[in-house]
């Protein structure tokens, strides 16, 4: 098999990455703590020293997940402002109008979510 020279660094990096993963997994298996099987008190789950109440499989309210998704959505929006903030002079008026359009789209989404009642915690 005749590989071009450009692929050699990529193959070396892939081999190092896979080697690191293999060594980490094997090291954790052989050097890590061994847990005894059984139903001892030591193997039960505890939260800050307080006994567990209820079942861990109790479903959460959909509002919790909706709030998390909305937070991620509007939080990631902020990341897109960084290139504009760094280069706002080079972008000029065209860049300013592009950012205003971007913000307008997110304001429309925010007001839609607000009117649908997704931000009302009392319901």
From TrEMBL:
It comes from the Bacteria. It is found in: Cell membrane; Membrane. InterPro entries: NAD(P)H_OxRDtase_bac/plastid (IPR023043), NADH_UbQ/plastoQ_OxRdtase_su3 (IPR000440), NDAH_ubi_oxred_su3_sf (IPR038430). GO terms for cellular component: NADH dehydrogenase complex; plasma membrane. It catalyses: a quinone + NADH + 5 H(+)(in) = a quinol + NAD(+) + 4 H(+)(out). PANTHER family: NADH-QUINONE OXIDOREDUCTASE SUBUNIT A (PTHR11058:SF22), NADH-UBIQUINONE OXIDOREDUCTASE CHAIN 3 (PTHR11058). Belongs to the complex I subunit 3 family. This is NADH-quinone oxidoreductase subunit A. It comes from Epilithonimonas bovis DSM 19482. The gene is nuoA.
């Amino acid at each position: 098999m005749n590989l071009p020279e450009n692929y050699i660094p990529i193959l070396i990096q892939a081999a190092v990455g896979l080697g690191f993963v293999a060594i980490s997994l094997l090291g954790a298996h052989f050097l890590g703590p061994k847990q005894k099987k059984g139903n001892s008190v030591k193997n039960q789950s505890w939260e800050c020293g307080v006994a567990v109440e209820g079942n861990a499989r109790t479903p959460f309210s959909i509002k919790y997940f909706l709030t998390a998704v909305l937070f991620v959505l509007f939080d990631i929006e902020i990341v897109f402002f960084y290139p504009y903030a760094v280069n706002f002079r080079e972008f000029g008026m065209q860049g300013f109008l592009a950012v205003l359009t971007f913000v307008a789209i997110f304001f429309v989404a925010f007001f839609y979510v607000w009117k649908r009642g997704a931000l009302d915690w009392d319901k």
